[in-house]
């Protein structure tokens, strides 16, 4: 079984001089960011095959908080029932470079970016991942799955093979791109639509299970061009 950290406050903090590889751990019950990565941290932080469940607090990035000028890789990980009551990105908040592959996000809740929030200085890539029943709660409920502040130096790259279903908020089953100075240009990068019941059946149990193994295992190479029609 996996190593498990339970209980309040931060579980792991990576400081400026640190470079971490975190594999096969479960983080649950934190009332702050389970993993917090400090500003201007050297190197790339790797988080692979981990589970983040039932963490809840008032701040941003209750699962993973990656501050300015950081670099993270998240692979094969599972995020469920994480809640940020007063901020953004319940599962992952990134304001640096972030790559998320082959991961699943289920029932995460935040004001914006119910699962993932990318700040104005972020470079975000998502591939081979599924977003199910996540929720945005603030105002117009933008970005229940993924919210990107699409201005300044921000970039988003779609790695393909992403799925979304049943996310609750403004109608964007994918990545909400927010252009703050040009609100009429806000767009939704739509992920592939999938049968909600089948996706939920394929999602691991919330705590007592290993990370998903049945999803895509390699980096996607094609970019979805439209919402499936059949």
Terminal CA distance? 40 Å
Helix segment count? 1
Number of strands: 26
Rough outline: globular
How much beta, percentage-wise?
Answer: 35-45%
* Neighbour order of strands in the largest sheet: 1-4-7-11-15-19-23-26
Looking at the chains present, what oligomeric state does this protein adopt?
Answer: single chain
Helix content, binned percent:
under 10%
Poorly predicted runs: 205-230
Q: Give the domain tally.
A: 1
Protein name: Right handed beta helix domain-containing protein
Main location: other
Biased composition (Low complexity): 211-230
Region (Disordered): 202-230
What does this structure look like?
- There is one protein chain.
- Helices cover 3% and strands 39% of the residues.
- The chain is mainly beta and 230 residues long.
- The protein has an 8-stranded parallel β-sheet with strand order 1-4-7-11-15-19-23-26. An 8-stranded mixed β-sheet has the order 2-5-9-13-17-21-24-25, with no helix packed on it.
- The chain is globular.
- The longest helix is centred in the last third of the chain and has 6 residues, at 196-201.
- Residues 202-230 are annotated as: Disordered.
- This is Right handed beta helix domain-containing protein.
- Keywords: Cell outer membrane, Membrane, Secreted, Signal.
Topology:
Blueprint: E1 3-6, E2 12-14, E3 21-23, E4 25-28, E5 35-37, E6 45-48, E7 51-53, E8 56-57, E9 64-66, E10 71-75, E11 78-80, E12 83-84, E13 92-94, E14 97-101, E15 104-106, E16 109-110, E17 116-118, E18 123-127, E19 130-132, E20 135-136, E21 146-149, E22 155-160, E23 163-165, E24 174-178, E25 187-190, E26 192-193, H1 196-201
């Amino acid at each position: 079984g996996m190593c498990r950290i339970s209980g309040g406050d931060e579980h792991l903090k990576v400081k400026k001089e640190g470079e971490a590889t975190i594999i096969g751990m479960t983080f649950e019950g934190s009332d702050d960011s389970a993993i917090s990565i400090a500003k201007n941290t050297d190197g790339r932080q790797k988080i692979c095959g981990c589970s983040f469940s039932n963490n809840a607090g008032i701040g941003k990035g209750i699962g993973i908080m990656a501050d300015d000028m950081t670099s993270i890789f998240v692979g094969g990980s599972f995020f469920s029932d994480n809640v940020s009551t007063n901020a953004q990105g319940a599962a992952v908040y990134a304001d640096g470079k972030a790559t998320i592959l082959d991961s699943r996000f289920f029932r995460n809740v935040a004001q914006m970016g119910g699962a993932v929030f990318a700040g104005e200085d972020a470079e975000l890539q998502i591939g081979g991942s599924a977003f199910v029943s996540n929720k945005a709660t603030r105002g117009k409920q933008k970005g229940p799955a993924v919210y990107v502040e699409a201005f300044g130096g921000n970039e988003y790259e779609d790695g393909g093979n992403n799925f979304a279903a049943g996310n609750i908020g403004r109608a964007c089953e994918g990545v909400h791109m927010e252009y703050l100075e040009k609100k009429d240009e806000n767009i939704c990068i739509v992920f592939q639509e999938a049968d909600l019941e089948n996706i939920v059946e394929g999602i691991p149990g919330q705590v007592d299970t290993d990370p998903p193994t049945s999803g895509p295992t390699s980096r996607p190479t094609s970019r979805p061009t439209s919402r499936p029609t059949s």
